Amino acid sequence: MSKWYEKGVFYHMYPLGLTGAPKENSGADVTDRFEEMDQWIPHIRSLGCNAIYIGPLFESSSHGYDTRDYRTVDRRLGTNESFKNFVSLCHESDIKVVVDGVFNHTGREFFAFLDIAANRESSPYRDWYKGVNFGWNSPLGDSFGYEAWQGHYELPCLNLWNPDVKQYLFDTIRFWVDTFDIDGIRLDCANVLDFGFMKELRSQTSAMKDDFWLMGEVIHGDYSRWVNDEMLHSVTNYELHKSIYSGHNDHNYFEIAHNVRRLEAIGGRLYTFVDNHDEDRIASKLNDPEHLYPVYTLLFTLPGIPSIYYGGEWGIEGRRTKTSDDALRPRITIADEEKLHCGLTDLIARLGTIHDENPEFHGGRYQELLLTNRQYAFARFHQGHAVITAVNNDGADVSVAIPCPVSGTTAVNLLDGEEYPVTDQKITVTLPANRGVILKITEG
C-alpha cells in the first residue's frame, strides 16, 4: 500500500515571515496569527498541494531556530489550540502537516541552559549540551563555555548522546503527535545530527503514527547515508536545486540530466525544491524570468517530492544579504493573491493536478529520452504506461522528435489537451520558447 508522501506535493510556509510577526519575542501577550494562516488553506489546495511543511513554530527568541520551549507554540503566532485547529483544517482539506524539528541546538533561554547558568556544576542538565566547560566564559557572557552551531553562540548544541536529552525529545514528538496530530518532521541540520539518534527517532516515530514522515535538511554528501530504511525517509535535494537553476542559466540541460542519473537510486524519495527560506528566490537566481516555466515543469515531473515555497507560485523575487534573510521571508497576505496571480500561478496549479492524477510521478521509473544543451525529454513509468516531459530553455521555438518508450498511437499534452501522433515510435513536437509539454501516451 502506498504512503501519502509518495504522491506528496508540498507547500512550504515560514510563518514568522509570512505573517509579519515581530523579529524579536518580547514575551508579551499572545498574538494569534493562525486565523490568517487558516485562510491560506484553500489557496494551497488549489495549487494541487496535499502537504504543508510549516516552521519553525515553537516558542523562540528571534528567528524561530533558537528554541525556548518545544511544547508551546510561539506566542507571536498563536496558541497550541490555534495550531491544533490549523492542523485539523488542513486534514479536513486532505493536507498533511509537517513541522520543523530543531533538535541540534536550542536557544539560550531554554530551561536546561538557564539551569546550567544558574547552578553550574550542580545543575542536573550540565550534560545536556556539548562541550560544557566551566573553565571559560562564552563570547556572549555566559559563565561557562559550550559548543555552538557553526560558532553562533546564541545556538548552543544539544548533546544527543545523552539518554535524558533523547528521551526528552522523543517525549516532545509524542506530545506533538498527541496534541496537534502532525504527520511528520523536517529535521533541521540533519547533516550534523548523530546517526544513532536518527535511527532511534525513526523507530520511535514509526510506533507513534502510521506513515509518519521524517525528512532531513542535508546540503552536501551521499544522500543515501541518511535516506534508508533505518533512518530518514527523505532529505532535501540541494544537488538538484543547484543544477536546475544553473542548468537554465548556462543553457546546459546536461547538468540537470547528469544529476538525475547520479541520484536515480533514491531520487524519487528526495524532497525537491527550487527555493526555500534559506536560499535566494529562484526568480532572482534565474537570468531569464521566462525560465520559471520549464523550471517548475521539471520540479513537478522529475523524480522527487516537489515543494513550492510560499510566494514562488507568483514568481516573487528576493535575495539574502550578509546580515539578513528577511527578503527571503517576506510578509504576504492571502488577499495579495489577486494582484500577484500570473501565468506561472496557473501553470503550477495545472502541474499540481497532473502530478496528482498520474501515478507515473509517484515514484515511477525514470528514463532519459532526448538531451541537448537546450532541450531535454524524459519518461516516467507506471505499470507499462508512460508520461513524457519535454522542455526547452531556448528563446525560440524548436521542433524535436522524441522516442516513444511504450506502445501507443497518440500522445496528449496534459497541459493543454493538444494531440500528437506517434509515428515510427517517435513523437514530433514543436516546443515553444522557454516552455514544455507533458505527454500522456494513449492507444487510439
Question: How would you portray this structure in words?
Answer:
The longest helix has 18 residues. The chain folds into three domains: 304 residues, TIM Barrel (Alpha-Beta Barrel), CATH 3.20.20; 54 residues, Oligo-1,6-glucosidase, Domain 2 (Oligo-1,6-glucosidase, domain 2); 77 residues, Golgi alpha-mannosidase II (Immunoglobulin-like), CATH 2.60.40.1180. Strand 13 and strand 14 form a beta hairpin. The protein has 444 residues and is of the alpha/beta class. The strands form four sheets. Strands 10-9-8-5-2-1-12-11 form an eight-stranded parallel sheet. The two termini are 32 Å apart. Helices cover 28% and strands 22% of the residues. Helix 6 packs parallel to helix 7, helix 8 packs antiparallel against helix 9 and helix 11 packs parallel to helix 13. The model has no long low-confidence stretch (mean pLDDT 97). InterPro entries: GH, GH13_cat_dom, Glyco_hydro_b, Malt_amylase-like_C. One of its GO terms (molecular function) is hydrolase activity, acting on glycosyl bonds. Keywords: Glycosidase, Hydrolase. This is Glycosidase. Belongs to the glycosyl hydrolase 13 family.
